[in-house]
Every structure is written in C-alpha cells, then in structure tokens.
Amino acid sequence: MTSGARARVGAGASASGGRTRTRACNRRKTVRIRSVSNDDDGRTRRDVLAAVALAPLMTLASPAIARGGTPTVEERFAATRGDVRKLMAEDPDFGPTMVRLAWHSSGTYDRMSRTGGSGGGTIRFREELAHGGNAGLEAAIRKLEPIHERRDGISWADLIAFVGVVAIEEMGGPKLKFSYGRVDEMDPGAVTPDGRLPDADKGDGPGPKTRQGLRDVFYRMGFNDREIVALSGAHALGRCHANASGYEGPWSGTPLLFNNSYFVLLKGLKWEPDDTKAKFQYTDPSGQLMMLPSDIALIEDEKFKPYVLEYAKSQTKFFEDFAAAFEKLETLGTSGLTPLNA
After folding, report:
1. What does the pLDDT read at residue 341?
2. pTM for the whole structure
3. I need a labelling partner for 81 at 20 to 30 A (CA). Which of 11, 46, 134, 268 fits?
4. What is the CATH number of the domain that holds 295?
C-alpha cells in the first residue's frame, strides 16, 4: 500500500444480507428423534427435545441472527455503547478519559491546510500519542482495542469520536448528534505536528498571551469566543494528573457528572495561585479544587466572561451550546458522514 493510502472501513451493513430471512417460524417441520436413550454424541432424548423447543426462542432473541447474521449499523453502535458503559462501570475515570480522547483526536484540525481532525483516527498512532497534550491516552487506546476488534465495520476514527459522545451522555450531559463514516488513515505520516492543542499557560498565567493562545488554536479550527467557552465547560469532568500534564486535581467536586458546575465555580469562588504544586495553577479556598491559568483567563477576559456568566446561570443554555459546538468539533475536516439514528 502506498504512503498516505487509506483503508475504508464501511460501517454500513450489506443490504442483501438483511433480506435473507429464516422462514422456519412460518412452516411446520417434522423433527425425528431417535428412539434410544442416548444419541451417538452423548445427548439424551430429553436434551434433543429441549434443543428443538428452544431453537425458535434463540432465533427471536437475536435480530441479527434472524436476518441472516449481519447486524445493522444501529445495532453495531448500540452494542458499542454497551461496551463503553461496561468499561465506565468497571473504571469510573474511563468516562472523562474518553471525552479527552475524542476531543484531542478532533482538536488538531486546521481549516487553512485542511489537515488534522477526527477523520483519520490518527490519534491511535504512537506518533500522535507521543504529543505532549496526549500524555496518558495510550492506555485508553489499549482499552478500546478489544471493542474495535469485536465491532466489525466501525472504523477507529468513528469509534474514538463515538465513545466521547457516549461518555458525555452517560455522565448526565446533553443528547449529542453523531455521524459515522470516517475513514481510517493507515499512514502515520498523516499525523499532524505537535502543538495544535490548547496550552494551559503561555508563560503569563491567565494573561494576554494565554488568552491569545486559546483564540489562536480555536480560531484555527473555525470556532468563535462563545464556542471556546462552551467547549471549555467539559472541564467539569475528570481531573489533572501530575504524571501526565504536570497539573493536579479536579475542577469540580463532581468530576463524573457533566453539568455547568465548572462555570458556577469559576464565577463563584475566590481562586488563588497554588504554590504547593509543581506547575502554576489555582486553588479554591478549600484547597480541594483547581483551575488552570487558561480557565482563569475565561473569567478575566472581557469577551469570554459574559459567556461564563451566562452558562453559570443557565445549564440549559450551556447544554444547548455545548452540544452544537461538540458536534462541530467532531466533524471538522470530515465529509460524506451519515447521521446515526439511534
């Protein structure tokens, strides 16, 4: 395969496969049971009778089998949702990590060069996982590998985008739109340069350089100030880890719930520099919560601040704007996607 070649993994099921149906339920069939106590394979007459009785129920229990064994797109993604729910139940921190993975997969887009974004699923390559902002995400990809292997027909790119949607919804966030049909990039050479994700600090805390740094990154993708603040609301989830980003602590007291607490806390608490941490960050009066310099920039910047106040006041408005911005984020640079009706 030549450099840059792509392998399309179709998410759609074969149309003809769905038309092949078993008509056993509509016709009577004579089943002959051998009049001996045991069949040659060791089964008793009772075992055979039980198998005959249960066969129709087994067929009805699996719609895919009833159609000939090929699941629909909706069934594939529904099964994947179940897989993600299971992983979140086993490891509650997996939810916020999936949101981060989906965000970082999409957040490399450059609308001028039309490179980056979620379209090729390149974040699964070690070259992109090695980027500074992706520290710790290699373990997340490993957790998704068995799901990708089981759910034939779902590309890596679609899977990474979809798990972010599922995680947000399962943690109480808004219902999000999702479209599938991303094509996996097979050449690691398609990985974009490091440095396309936002920096928490440009060297002046929440000052002008950090604020401009935020705008440079998001404007490059095609977002405006309202969308920058709305997407920042995902910081209601999860926490920073010193062994990954160098920062430490959760943004909110409910890191497994998606809500507008990030804005409520950003507005309502007094945030002071925390001299006890290795990297410059802020802490609340309790010493239990943290904010990054780029978070404080939102409440200090005269153009960002009105949106912080608006979302602190109305979770409904925050959910509405976040849902639209997140769908936009995950579809940047893609084409020919199909909305998932599930």
Report:
1. 87
2. 0.80
3. 134
4. 1.10.420.10
